[in-house]
Amino acid sequence: MHLDLNGKTTLVTGAATGIGRAIAVAMAGAGATVVVNHLGRAQLADDTVALIEAAGGTAWAVEANVSSGDAVRHMMDACLQRHGVVDILVNNAGILLEKPFLDIRESEWDHVLATDLKSVFLCCQAALPAMLSRGNGCIINVASELGYLGRAGFAAYTAAKAGVITLTRSLAREFAPHVRVNAIAPGPVDTSMLALDHMSAAWAAKEADVPMGRVGRPEEIAATAVFLASSHASYYCGQTLSPNGGALMV
Ligand SMILES: NC(=O)c1ccc[n+]([C@@H]2O[C@H](COP(=O)([O-])OP(=O)(O)OC[C@H]3O[C@@H](n4cnc5c(N)ncnc54)[C@H](O)[C@@H]3O)[C@@H](O)[C@H]2O)c1
Question: Most buried in the list 121, 144, 199, 226, measured by CB within 10 Å?
Fold first, then answer.
């Protein structure tokens, strides 16, 4: 199966590190021109661009806080000026808050929901008009298996990720057949967010306690994103794919 994204422009949010970087590199590997969004991580974003260029691809970096409507609109304007349209939008940026529910401050709740859920609303609303006027587009939202499962100590994050899954379905219904909107709900993936290096051996073993016997690699999530963006996924609409090592089977 040849996944060809030649001629497509892809915006990946939070692409300086982790899963976002892997998605950016994989999209470029399939031929897309990639816009690497970051927040306060210019050097790491440049490293993502350099990785793509070293492999013969095309990319550029743009800083924007995706939880700010003004910042998102400026970012989208810059993309549209340069490329006319964003064909593929990957809403990947996110943060994690681990805290007992009773200790979560209102400001912390708002920050997590703004970064993990409102950002998807803002980026989709900014990207959709140009997609619709061209008659096609593709949006991929990065949720989490925890958006289905919930987890003690992660109430704000899991609520936001559940919201991402349902927002994906609502947008898919509203904008099909012109724009395909789908999501990915990864299981545990070896990035700085999971912070395996800083975990006790016992807790790291617990994270890896899935049928596949290990946590995932960012590249394994990126492969799902490239598939969803490709013409091979032309009948996927409102779905949440789950590269999760078998952690959750639905
Ligand atoms: N690592 C996992 O186990 C795992 C599992 C399921 C889902 N996810 C999801 O995958 C996505 C990527 O996470 P990751 O594991 O690569 O972690 P990561 O911390 O490496 O990546 C998150 C990126 O988002 C960026 N970011 C945060 N707030 C931002 C903002 N306001 N504007 C722009 N960028 C912002 C960060 O700077 C970082 O580069 C997240 O949405 C996360 O919730 C991760």
Answer: 144
